[in-house]
Amino acid sequence: MANTAQGFRLTGRLAPESAREIWQALEPGHRAALERLGKDLTALQGFAGPPLDCAAARVLLIHRWRRLILLWPEVPPGVLPEDIPAGDLHSAVAAAYARLTPDAEAWLDSGDADMPALPAPAPGSRTRFA
Asked: Where does the Transcriptional repressor PaaX-like C-terminal domain start and stop, copy by copy (predicted)?
């Protein structure tokens, strides 16, 4: 784990009994961002909306994920509280992204009178989060 705002560095193995102390040592904004992402992931489990809703959900998911990973260090899965459903947030975001992508891309591929269809995505875009 990287340096925290409290000025210490954690190294070595995480023990289950240390998770709560590590969680509490995180900056309050970091904890809040992790909790919000956890709620988003819970809401997206089994989500099946119209293509436009899937496109919007995918944008918001990636926005929240990028904000989190650009502002704070990664938190090991063993530190996250049990009420955050994803033990491994990277994998959980990747899975949600993969579930939303077919319908989101279908919406982007469909044009209408107000907005033409977007060009086909780059070949590597299908392997994001791989």
From this structure: 49-109
Is 38 among the domain residues?
yes
Residue 41 neighbours by CB under 8 Å, 6+ apart = 85, 86, 89, 92, 93, 96
Three-state secondary-structure class, residue 80 = coil
Can you give the pTM of this predicted structure? 0.76
Q: Judge whether 63 lies within some domain.
A: yes
Whether the CB-CB separation of 47 and 101 falls below 8 Å is answered with: no
Query: What are the tokens at 20?
Result: 């709560």
Quick one: DSSP state of residue 87?
S
Establish if 118 belongs to a structural domain.
no
Instruction: Quote the CA–CA distance of 129 and 32 in Å, as a whole number.
Output: 23
